[in-house]
Amino acid sequence: MVAVSDGQMSSGQAPAAVWAPVGQPVLSLALTSMMDAVGAHSGAVYLLPVDESVLEMAVMAGLPRSFAAPWERVGLSAPIPVAEAVRERRLVWVGGAEDMARRYPRIAVVLPYPFALAALPVLTATRVYGAVFVTWPGSHPPELADRERQELTAACERLALRLERAASKNRSVRAETDLLDAGRLGGVADTLGTIEAARMVSRLPYGMCSLDVSGRIGFANEAASELLGVPVGGLLGSQLWAAVPWLNDPLYEERYRAALLSQEATSFVALRPPSQWLSFRLYPSTTGISVRISRARAVSEMSPTGPRSEDAPTRLVSMSQALSMAGALTETVSVQDVVGLVADEIAPAVGSQALALLGARAGRLHVLGHHGYPDPHVVERFDRTPLSSPTPGAHAVAHGVPAFFDSREHLERLYPARRSSPDGFAAWAFLPLIASGRPVGACVLAYAEPRAFSTHERAVLTSLAGLIAQALDRALLYDVKHQLAHGLQAALLPHSLPTLAGIEATARYLPATRGMEIGGDFYDLVPSHPHAAAVIGDVQGHNVTAAGLMGQIRTAVRAYTTVGQEPAEVMRSTNRLLIDLGSDLFASCLYLWLDPARGRAVMARAGHPPPLLRRPDGRVRVLDLAGGPLLGIDASATYPTTEVELTDGCVLALYTDGLIETPGVDIEDAIADLGRRLGEAGDRPLAELADELVGHYAAADERMDDVALLLLRARGDA
């Protein structure tokens, strides 16, 4: 093991409780002591290198490292407990399988077993040194006991002090040998003797095997040998699924993982060719698993699986990584989401220090994003490079073949032009991104040190490239639709509001964050004679149909206003038009004539939320106007008008329901709150007032509905 030694201790050095004696493995001792104190059955310590944002697993205890393979290197932004513990400087508790699935679905996909987990940062007041996690069987109570919390917190504080002491003396603490044997088998040899114990087991009529935590067989009786069809000598020292060909299937190996992680007995039935069904019962402990094998009495219809040729530990690692990364990539939406996820999670997991994501369009490469390059220009200069150019990125996309370069000499020998443009790295993987049989781009992973890419590593990187390609293909399509939707929305709404005599106006529009982020909310200001007009409305839906209908309504209102129709007639004409169009959608609308010279406004309403009027003295009134039904329902509907005072300094707030509808909040309370904020901020410049009224919604990650706001302030210069 790699250890930290202190040499000769001086009188000013920390006592033994804070510092490990010479030659002892600091991390392993701290971890096992912590696990013993709280009765945990597995755990790991991560270290955070200086000036880096990646946690690196330094030692693991109680379980094979293959169980945690996808998280050996963890970006600090990753949505997993150890990263969250460091980000938030607190203990993170996961009380069981349901809690894990709800909060950390990526982990639950790879490890869908009942277990509890606590993650803590290892830090002092001035520096974060890493993190720790420990796990308990699924039988642990759903809440962490105060004693357990105190023990874990104190242990992490002691470890942080040890690491701080090492750093102060320029002594590095590095990875240590994993501890798979978490305990000792006590009592059996003392009571029966090892020879008699073996004789007893050999007399049992069913098979018995003992597996260590890595799945290797340490003991098997003759009955097990006969049932499995493999001599005892062929079993010992091998993993069960590797020694028995017809058990070499991930389904059976998964049962072993479930038993070891949950510490709960589990079982499965397997077919020994050609027709013998065997029952396997697994009894786990922290030292390994006891397996009972017997002939199955009755078996429902099952499908046997053939032998696998892969080495079991290798398959476990690649399977876990693929599941974890696939789950993460399904959550990406835009191209920048994909770039961010590859940078924060995939690149650290495979040891890469920098990456570039390249797209392929119209015969050229396009730099979609990059991360980790000290000089961004070395990547961006490849933007719009022809696919026929003699560069490794273009070659990977054009031919669909991955390329791995273990040193700068290797790269420059095949691509001499790269000598004139070094990027500061020493090894590269150029991975073509192929989706649905066509190239969508390439992923370039760069490494700080020369690297010999093994066959297994090349296979894993190529597989990950396939997952990235699918996510990137979806993201590129989403971005195109997103740009199209926003372009359509921008074309249908006014680019700017006209200047009106006696009226100051400003508007805000926020699309919903669901669907295409396009909707049917609209507003307009029409400088007509003798009266200018204002309108705000909301067509049902958040799609292209709603947006298209919104554009037709806005155009119709502007046309009816221009020919001189009064508010009531504008609403009736627009209602009949919507019905004549044969649309199944309805629309709310609020239309008003503005007459600032006479200090008034005439309004007509069709099922729209009531406007708010703020007087110069700060009082706010809800204008609960008489009105008619939604547009598009009744061809004979009428829309009565109401005249409202609009004197110098008054502010009219016209809005759509997205500004006041919040789940769990009464609509009247929401309108009252909007009126309160209008009253408090109404003296501000109109643009600042608009930002204040929509501020909460503009900052929200999710908006269920569009938000439109039109503010009108009467001025005395009419």
Automatic annotation (TrEMBL):
<protein>
    <recommendedName>
        <fullName>protein-serine/threonine phosphatase</fullName>
        <ecNumber>3.1.3.16</ecNumber>
    </recommendedName>
</protein>
<feature type="domain" description="GAF">
    <location>
        <begin position="334"/>
        <end position="482"/>
    </location>
</feature>
<keyword id="KW-0597">Phosphoprotein</keyword>
<feature type="coiled-coil region">
    <location>
        <begin position="149"/>
        <end position="176"/>
    </location>
</feature>
<keyword id="KW-0479">Metal-binding</keyword>
<dbReference type="Pfam" id="PF13185">
    <property type="entry name" value="GAF_2"/>
</dbReference>
<feature type="domain" description="PPM-type phosphatase">
    <location>
        <begin position="503"/>
        <end position="714"/>
    </location>
</feature>
<keyword id="KW-0067">ATP-binding</keyword>
<dbReference type="GO" id="GO:0016301">
    <property type="term" value="F:kinase activity"/>
</dbReference>
<dbReference type="InterPro" id="IPR052016">
    <property type="entry name" value="Bact_Sigma-Reg"/>
</dbReference>
<dbReference type="GO" id="GO:0005524">
    <property type="term" value="F:ATP binding"/>
</dbReference>
<dbReference type="InterPro" id="IPR001932">
    <property type="entry name" value="PPM-type_phosphatase-like_dom"/>
</dbReference>
<dbReference type="InterPro" id="IPR035965">
    <property type="entry name" value="PAS-like_dom_sf"/>
</dbReference>
<keyword id="KW-0460">Magnesium</keyword>
<keyword id="KW-0808">Transferase</keyword>
<dbReference type="GO" id="GO:0046872">
    <property type="term" value="F:metal ion binding"/>
</dbReference>
<keyword id="KW-0418">Kinase</keyword>
<keyword id="KW-0464">Manganese</keyword>
<comment type="function">
    <text>Primarily acts as an independent SigF regulator that is sensitive to the osmosensory signal, mediating the cross talk of PknD with the SigF regulon. Possesses both phosphatase and kinase activities. The kinase domain functions as a classic anti-sigma factor-like kinase to phosphorylate the anti-anti-sigma factor domain at the canonical regulatory site, and the phosphatase domain antagonizes this activity.</text>
</comment>
<dbReference type="GO" id="GO:0004722">
    <property type="term" value="F:protein serine/threonine phosphatase activity"/>
</dbReference>
<feature type="domain" description="PAS">
    <location>
        <begin position="195"/>
        <end position="261"/>
    </location>
</feature>
<keyword id="KW-0175">Coiled coil</keyword>
<dbReference type="InterPro" id="IPR000014">
    <property type="entry name" value="PAS"/>
</dbReference>
<dbReference type="InterPro" id="IPR003018">
    <property type="entry name" value="GAF"/>
</dbReference>
<keyword id="KW-0547">Nucleotide-binding</keyword>
<dbReference type="Pfam" id="PF07228">
    <property type="entry name" value="SpoIIE"/>
</dbReference>
<dbReference type="InterPro" id="IPR029016">
    <property type="entry name" value="GAF-like_dom_sf"/>
</dbReference>
<dbReference type="InterPro" id="IPR036457">
    <property type="entry name" value="PPM-type-like_dom_sf"/>
</dbReference>
<keyword id="KW-0378">Hydrolase</keyword>
<keyword id="KW-0904">Protein phosphatase</keyword>
